[in-house]
Amino acid sequence: MIKAGIIGATGYAGGELVRILLGHKDVEIKWYGSRSYIDKKYADVYQNMFQLVEDTCLDDNIEALADQVDVIFTATPQGFLAGLLTEEILSKAKVIDLSADYRIKDVSVYEAWYKLEHKSPQFLPEAVYGLCEQNREAIKKARLVANPGCYPTCSFLSIAPLARAGYIDMKTLIIDAKSGTSGAGRGAKVDNLYCEVNENIKAYGVASHRHTPEIEEQLSYVAGEPVTLNFTPHLVPMNRGILITAYANVREGVTEEMLRGAYEEAYGQERFVRFLAPGVCPQTKWVEGSNFVDVNVVYDGRTGRVIMLGAMDNLVKGAAGQAVQNMNLMFGLPEDMGLTLVPMFP
């Protein structure tokens, strides 16, 4: 039985970790960490956990936690883990960080986009970017996993097959993204009030969203060249879900059959990436509550461009589900253990 601790257990991603891990037969949650609700019963914070979780919330003492568990999940703001992580902690427990602290290898890029000083850059070289479909073998041997961001996960999985095959001009890549409000976290913000979000859609972080360098870095690895792109996210009035629509010029001689073949080769054996039939567009409703990512590709012969599409649940594959998928790999368990979540409808 794997003993797990969660710091940030009362945020949206932390709550989703609890929901998933309660259904994982090889995991016992030992620590429900929450700086905001210390000594309060977890089920009083999330009443869906009534009679399921009897524990009270503890503090965020990661040093004490490392002595009690095999794996620590940190669903915390940027800068939290980087300010506390030590070699002693990593010698005692594996760590899966849901923040951006160890996702970007170049510390200067992290500090420029996140406006934070990185407190433990010495761990950046060993941190493994936890995108299972890309880094599966490295994750199996990792002590420290940087769980990918939600937008980067959906963007990468939607685009990577064509970037890897060299079928698109990466200099022409544009990503249009849309997310539900849970992607902004559970903290009280005016922009997330019901009257601000309902019956509204808006772009935000235009030309400045901090997931941009993460997407560029990961796509550059598979493309074999530096990638600079336009990424524009939008907030839409729904609880969960991300929809990616990406565009790029197709290289001369590339056919629609070759485009689809790249996805079939990339995802034919993948458990959680579903490559849809021709003409079927991914929809957030068909992945909600699950660890699936639905992707498809459409070639527009009239413009010589390709449209790459992806949909996923930002709290599951975009956060907690992917973290559990990483944990399974790190502990030698079947990758889908605890993650056989059927999408919810309606």
Strand content: 15-25%
- Which regions have little confidence, pLDDT < 50, spanning 5+ residues? none
Going across the major beta sheet, what is the strand order? 8-9-7-10-13-12-11
Q: What is the count of distinct domains? A: 2
Q: Which CATH class of the largest domain is shown?
A: Alpha Beta
Q: What value does the Rg take, in angstroms?
A: 20 Å
What is the helix content?
25-40%
The largest pleated sheet is described as: 7 strands, mixed
* CATH topology name of the largest domain: Dihydrodipicolinate Reductase, domain 2
CATH second-level architecture of the largest domain:
2-Layer Sandwich
Structural class: alpha/beta
Name of the CATH superfamily of the largest domain? Dihydrodipicolinate Reductase, domain 2
Mean pLDDT, nearest integer? 97
Quick one: overall form? Answer: globular
- Order of secondary-structure elements: EHEHHEHEHEHEHEHEHEEHEEEH
- What is the multimeric organization of the chains shown? single chain
Strand segment tally: 13
Count the DSSP helices.
Answer: 11
Give the end-to-end Cα distance, rounded to a whole number of Å.
35 Å
Describe the structure.
By secondary structure, the protein is of the alpha/beta class. It has two domains: 2-126, Rossmann fold (3-Layer(aba) Sandwich), CATH 3.40.50.720; 151-313, 2-Layer Sandwich (Dihydrodipicolinate Reductase, domain 2). Helix content is 29%, strand content 19%. The strands form two sheets. A seven-stranded mixed beta sheet has the order 8-9-7-10-13-12-11. Strands 2-1-3-4-6-5 form a six-stranded parallel beta sheet. The two termini are 35 Å apart. The model has no long low-confidence stretch (mean pLDDT 97).
